[in-house]
Amino acid sequence: METTTHSPITIEATVNAPVAKVWEYWNSPEHITQWCAASDDWHAPYSDNDPRTGGTFKTTMAAKDGSFSFDFGGEYSNVVDNQLMEYAMGDGRKVKVVFEDQGDSTRIIETFDPENQNPIEMQRGGWQAILDNFKRHTETN
């Protein structure tokens, strides 16, 4: 079987909230279930998160019509509160999330290894949509 290796993908957003609030909303299951979806016809009915080095996480992402769902999860390899999260997903792909404290706002830079099944732009768009949902949720709650 031939595998294709792609360069990591980076997305980002600036959230108009202090880093402590951004960190809390990023990591609290009660908030994750409110923002972790790429479109309005999907939702996250379940989330469990232990945001520490060696901790694990799992979020169920599901179509609202019940036609499909999957678990997104992994293990944290490096966590620095309010600054950095690095983890490996269940399939071994790596993700790095940097939280840059800018006073009244926080810049989030997320870099992830793409999978080989879907086009790169589709993956970038999906992850960016989830990050944009996070931004909206955090700024309005």
Overview of the structural elements:
Pfam families: AHSA1. This is SRPBCC domain-containing protein. Residues 16-137 form the Activator of Hsp90 ATPase homologue 1/2-like C-terminal domain. Belongs to the AHA1 family. The chain is of the alpha+beta class and 141 residues long. The protein has a single domain (9-140), classed as Alpha-D-Glucose-1,6-Bisphosphate, Chain A, domain 4, CATH 3.30.530. Helix content is 26%, strand content 40%. It has a seven-stranded antiparallel β-sheet. Helix 1 (19-27) crosses helix 2 and helix 2 packs across helix 3. The longest helix is centred in the last third of the chain and has 21 residues, at 120-140. It is globular, with a radius of gyration of 15 Å. The termini are far apart.
List the helices and strands and how they pair.
Blueprint: E1 9-15, H1 19-27, H2 29-35, E2 42-49, E3 56-63, E4 69-80, E5 84-89, E6 94-101, E7 106-112, H3 120-140
Helix pairs in contact: 1-2, 2-3
